[in-house]
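If I may wish for something, please sit down with the protein I am sending here and say whether C-alpha cells and residues agree:
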Amino acid sequence: MAFCMNNKFLLTRPNHDQTVRYISTWAEKVKSFAEKKNFTVLDLKNNRAKRKHLESMLKKQDPSLVFLNGHGGSNSVAGQDNEILVSVGDNEDIFDGRVVYSLSCCSGRELGPALVKNGTKAFIGYREDFIFSYDEKCCTRPEQDMVADKFLDPSNQVIISLLKGHEPKESCLNAKKSFFRNIRKMLSSQSSSLESSSVRYLIWDMQNLVCLE
C-alpha cells in the first residue's frame, strides 16, 4: 500500500568533512532515482545545507519527503559546517506532515520521537551511531568505494523504497533486509579482510535503524 505524498523531495548534502562527503556523494544515487521517478528534487548541497535554506524550501515548496544527511546527536541533526538544522526544544514542528529519513548518528533516540510528537508523519533514523567502513584508497572517489557500498547502498534503500511509494515501516524493513543480504554475502563468500571486519558494523546499523510514527 502506497502512502500519500506530493512529488517534491528535499535532501541535504553537506560536504565539509570526509564522512559527510561520503554519504552526500552516495545520496547522488537517490537524487538520480527521484528524478527518474519525476520528483521535483530540492537539493540543498554544500553551502546550501543550512538552516535558513532548509526552512525556506520547506515553506515555499512544501516537500512531503525529506532526506537529511549529516552529523547528528541524540537531539539534533546538522548540515554544512555542523550548523544545526533541527533540534529538540527549538524547531520540532519543522517537518509537520512530512516523512523524514535521517542518515545521522543517534537522531532516532530523542529527536525522532520529539519530531513525531510535534507533527512529523514518520521518522526513520538510527538510535545509535551510524557506522560505515571505507577503503582509504577511494577517499577521493567515494562513489567507487565498494567497501562503503555495503553500508550506504542499504541505507539508501529507505529513501528508494519511500520514493517507490512504500509505507515508512515497510521502507525501513526493506533497508534492514538489504543490510542482512550484505551481511550474509560477506559471511559466506571470500571477502577481503576489510570487508570481513565490517560485518559487525553492518549488524549494528541494521539493528539500530528504527521507524517512528
Observations:
- Residues 168-188 form the longest helix (21 residues).
- The radius of gyration is 16 Å.
- The beta strands are 8-13, 40-45, 65-69, 72-73, 76-78, 84-87, 99-103, 122-126, 209-212.
- The longest strand covers residues 8-13.
